[in-house]
Automatic annotation (TrEMBL):
It comes from Micromonospora cathayae. It comes from the Bacteria. This is Cell wall-binding repeat-containing protein. SUPFAM superfamilies: DPP6 N-terminal domain-like. Residues 199-239 form the Dipeptidylpeptidase IV N-terminal domain.
Length: 661
């Protein structure tokens, strides 16, 4: 399939990277992360303009040098340090597709960036003049907070390395009092900010794909031990100096620097005199070739599409072997009108369940079957809208007859209903997203963003309330008037921003519904593992899809659905975040979003092993993240609670500037 050029990419990268230079102090050579995959190829970087493979250049740019390049879990992007001191990423097959993760810090040196776990975050080593090295971490998307992960105990922490888990191994060394490492180095785990030693007299640790072994350098040779420091195996034994070990994705072989070249040997010590790989020098890494996927979730109509979306994520009750998420509720909305349903995506994520559809007078049999599959009797079904205008009392009685409790969230009109839904989520939310209720696109993007803030463990909350285009209807005005000063108001879309302006609302809108969805994604999401794409020309599939995206902590983007490509908004986000995104979701059948658009999405997400195009999978789940680091995974991006208004405003302004570039 021919590649579709993405506009603005180099401009965006240049704008944020050309901020300042940093003075480099020098540092130890790194090991690099290993992410499991069917195979991989050895690459190298050495501070030049290219990442190389045996026999030539793989990718690079004349604009920036590339140091300490390390590959994302799917091999689609390398993260590296530029000559300006930025942490940035480059796509494996396109030297123009450059994106920053962190702007330079003129007072610090940075080295050895690595993708953590599923790629949601990136860690690296950093230090300021006269101070010990530290480990820093941020989401793997530009514009999020950087946190220090290592303890402030006067020791140097360098050369972080990870695999597919959230565990990080580091090198630790004492300080000489002048900001320089001294004494015998050791390696250990950094779980959160807790350091646990593994073995002493060791440098450059690298963690095996299965997390059971660690390779390191001792006495200029490569060694392997288990993660308790026992069962030592000497991998190399020749007279050459060795460094920078990295595991192959299969976990059987190590690549490493040998003399002035790069060699590889079996990790069991059976090849202690390896020969160099011809045609490649520098700091080695192994590029994984894990396949990404694009999953279409669809049925024969909006009822069965909503069920297919639910089945992709929510577990069958009573089945302990089901790895999908257990549902605590169901949100039920009318099938033929979006008016009362636009806050439903945020509610579904907050109450941990899918959004299903019903006719006015009868509970649809597919919704009945899906409720009974996922929801135990005694759980709650939320009905959106009044009995007279949305979901009848007869439907409510049918739901009760199935053994469920019902909660009807309704007002005198769509605006009052949105307020009722908001109050059911959180009467005092951290963030209020305001969008027009006279059309659906802006509120759908806002619903996924708000819902993601309500996920358990985030410590944040957000809601969506509706306007009458540029005007504030009485229920919404009364609601906004009653908010405490701690709630941040965001106007999503031009109408929502205009109507909410008296409340010092942060404006978040582009020139179209497609751009507004992209800006919302940039502002509220980072390091996501899923991207959802649906038509912006109709609402049913987007409504159910938005509820799922909120539960997956991922953005919902809009497309025409009938073009050859999904639009530059989708392409930009997919390309930039391909290092963390492993699954693109298409909501609706091919007549709604065609196969060409689905294939184009896959192209921008995929690494060197391409992608699988699948349908109605039942394993679309949010990553648990293992032992989480201090950087919050996805969502608002703050590491210790919701973003302040100033932080959220800065994120929205940065998103608008990027789009303008």
């Amino acid at each position: 399939m021919p590649r579709i050029s993405i506009t603005h990419r180099s401009a965006v990268f240049g704008t944020v990277l050309a901020i300042g230079a940093t003075t480099l102090f020098g540092g130890a050579a790194p090991a690099h992360a290993t992410h499991a995959s069917p195979g991989g190829r050895v690459t190298a970087s050495n501070g030049g303009h290219y990442i190389t493979v045996a026999g030539g250049n793989l990718v690079g740019t004349p604009e920036y040098t590339i140091t300490d390049a390390a590959w994302s879990p799917d091999g689609s992007r390398a993260v590296f340090v530029t000559d300006n001191g930025d942490i940035a990423t480059i796509r494996y097959n396109d030297g123009e597709s450059l994106y920053p993760i962190a702007n330079p810090d003129p007072s610090s040196q940075r080295a050895d960036p690595e993708w953590v776990g599923d790629g949601s975050t990136v860690v690296w080593a950093a230090r300021s003049a006269g101070e010990p090295w530290r480990i820093e971490e941020t989401l793997s998307t530009y514009g999020f907070d950087i946190v220090t992960r290592s303890p402030d105990d006067g020791h140097h922490y360098t050369q972080p390395d990870t695999n597919d888990s959230q565990r990080v191994v580091v090198q630790r060394q004492a300080d000489d009092g002048n900001g320089n490492p001294t004494g015998t180095p050791e390696i250990g785990f950094l779980d959160g900010s807790t350091y646990t030693p593994i073995v002493s007299d060791a440098t450059s640790p690298t963690l095996s794909p299965d997390g059971q072994k660690v390779a390191f350098v001792r006495g200029n040779q490569i060694w392997v031990s288990d993660t308790s420091g026992n069962n030592l195996v000497q991998v190399t034994g020749n007279a050459s100096s060795h460094g920078d070990p990295v595991w192959y994705p299969t976990g059987q072989t190590l690549a490493f620097r040998q003399g002035s070249g790069i060699a590889a040997a079996a990790a069991d010590g059976s090849q202690q005199n390896p020969t160099n790989i011809a045609g490649i020098t520098g700091e080695p890494d192994v590029q994984p070739n894990k396949k990404d996927r694009v999953v279409r979730l669809s049925g024969t109509d909006r009822f069965t599409t909503a069920v297919a979306i639910s089945q992709s994520h929510w577990a069958t009750r009573g089945n302990a072997a089901d790895k999908r998420a257990p549902a605590d509720s169901v949100v039920l909305t009318r099938w033929d009108s979006f008016a009362d349903a636009l806050g439903g995506s945020a509610l579904a994520a907050a109450k941990q369940g899918p959004l299903l559809m019903s006719t006015l007078d009868t509970l649809h049999p597919t919704a009945t079957a899906e409720m009974q599959r996922i929801l135990a009797p005694g759980k709650t079904v939320y009905l959106l809208g009044s009995a007279a205008g949305a979901i009848s009392a007869n439907v409510e009685q049918q739901v009760k007859a199935l053994g469920y409790n019902t909660v009807r969230l309704a007002g005198t009109d769509r605006f009052a209903t949105s307020v009722a839904i908001a109050n059911a989520i959180d009467p005092t939310p951290d963030t209020v997203l305001v969008a027009t209720g006279m059309d659906f696109p802006d509120a759908l993007s806002a619903g996924a963003a708000a819902g993601a803030q309500n996920l358990p463990g985030k410590g944040t909350s957000a809601v969506v309330v509706l306007t009458n285009n540029n005007l504030l209807p009485a229920p919404t005005k009364t609601y906004l008037d009653g908010l405490s000063g701690s709630s941040t108001v965001v106007g999503v879309g031009l109408s929502g921003a205009t109507a909410a302006q008296p409340y010092d609302a942060i404006p978040l809108y582009g020139d179209s519904r497609w751009e507004t969805a992209l800006l919302t994604a940039w502002t509220f999401f980072g390091g996501q593992n899923h991207i959802g794409v649906t038509t912006g020309m109709n609402w049913p599939d987007a409504l159910a899809g938005g509820a799922l995206m909120a539960s997956l902590d991922g953005p919902l983007l809009l497309t025409y659905g009938t073009d050859d490509v999904p639009g530059y908004e989708v392409e930009m986000l997919a390309d930039e975040t391909s290092g963390s995104v492993h699954t693109g979701l298409i909501f609706g059948s091919a007549p709604v979003v065609n196969d060409l658009e689905a294939q184009n999405l896959g192209y921008y997400l995929a690494g060197p092993n391409s992608y699988n195009l699948l349908a109605n999978q039942t394993d679309v789940v949010r990553s648990t993240g293992g032992t989480a680091g201090p950087a919050q995974r996805g969502g608002a991006g703050a590491v210790d609670g919701p973003r302040t208004r100033a932080e959220l405003k800065a994120a929205a302004e940065a998103a608008r500037e990027r789009l303008a570039d």
